[in-house]
Amino acid sequence: MEYVKLGSTGLDVSRICLGCMSYGEPGRGKHAWTLGEESGRPFIKRAVEAGVNFFDTANVYSDGSSEEIVGRALAEYADRDEIVLATKVRGRMRPGPNGGGLSRKAIMAEIDHSLRRLGTDYVDLYQIHRWDPATPIEETVEALHDVVKAGKARYVGASSMYAWQFAKALRVAERNGWTRFATMQNHYNLLYREEEREMLPLCADAGVGVIPWSPLARGRLTRDWGTATARTETDEFGKTLYRDDDRAIVEAVAKVADERGVSRAQVALAWVSRHPAVTAPIVGATEPHHLDDAIASLSLELTDEEAAMLEGPYTAREVRGFA
């Protein structure tokens, strides 16, 4: 396993982050395709054994059960001081007023709920799960600063939003002497490259670590075009992200993979990691080979010609994934 600094911080993270949205009780929340605790724990154990020290979840994943599963597994399989544990806040956790969002009240309540579910005194990275237009960003950033000063989080991060919004958040933190955002968790893969226009250059200039979600486009880049899975059939959010005319990109991935004698996942992940702004793609694993492919991708260096072949069929599209 290779390790790098997370953005401009002194924190060392593995170049692969295990995305833990895949682990949660299927009967809780909106993800009927997730693996329950008995099925999910072996993947977390395998990741630890492989040297992965970076794990990402969220309070809203499977109604909190993802945090519960991840917390119990890491307590058994890992040394807490060696693990970089990330979670998120914003999604609605209960009906009624203040059941979601990024108000001071919501943040202060949800960090304690997340810590209880994770079974830890602190998280290493506490991220806002999208922008909250109903709350002043000053209120949100100050509350996050207070979470850090209370010792409940070591760093704070953000996720998919417009570059102007993130620039504003960075400016608010700097102007007031509050804890600065260390990371951006955004949507970036061969089927969605709009982040190359503004967000990735902003992060590179500001020294913000980039940890892309869905680097394999919900698995679409790893299989023949049009192949259905349990997730593609039930993942309502995923259905909003991609277009029906991206066959040529998927076929280019297959061609490079065949020529190299590697899996398509390795090619698609190697392409994401190739971008100089990217710190560590967030990879989900629900089959044993998923982790193996992710780790192997770190050793795959694409040529400029191969990258051009992969990028050639892409056409501009409307911004998606901010909801």
SSE arrangement:
Layout (H helix, E strand, L loop, with lengths): L2 E3 L6 E3 L2 E3 L17 H13 L4 E3 L8 H13 L6 E6 L14 H15 L4 E6 L8 H13 L3 E7 L3 H14 L4 E5 L13 H8 L2 E2 L19 H5 L12 H14 L3 H11 L7 E2 L4 H10 L6 H8 L12
Parallel strand pairs: 3-4, 3-10, 4-5, 5-6, 6-7, 7-8, 8-9
Antiparallel strand pairs: 1-2
Helix pairs in contact: 1-2, 2-3, 3-4, 4-5, 8-9, 8-11, 9-10
What does this structure look like?
The structure is a single chain. The protein has helices at 37-49, 65-77, 104-118, 137-149, 163-176, 199-206, 230-234, 247-260, 264-274, 288-297, 304-311; strands at residues 3-5, 12-14, 17-19, 54-56, 84-89, 123-128, 153-159, 181-185, 209-210, 282-283. With 323 residues, it is of the alpha/beta class. The chain has a single domain (3-311), classed as Alpha-Beta Barrel (TIM Barrel), CATH 3.20.20. The chain has an 8-stranded parallel β-sheet with strand order 9-8-7-6-5-4-3-10. A two-stranded antiparallel sheet has the order 1-2. α1 crosses α2 (65-77) and α4 (137-149) crosses α5.
CATH superfamily annotation: NADP-dependent oxidoreductase domain
Structural class: alpha/beta
Cα(first) to Cα(last) distance is: 33 Å
Describe the largest sheet. 8 strands, parallel
Question: What is the number of independent domains?
Answer: 1
Q: Which parts are unreliable, with pLDDT below 50 for 5 consecutive residues or more?
A: none
State mean pLDDT (0 to 100 scale).
95
- Percent strand: 5-15%
Amount of helix: 25-40%
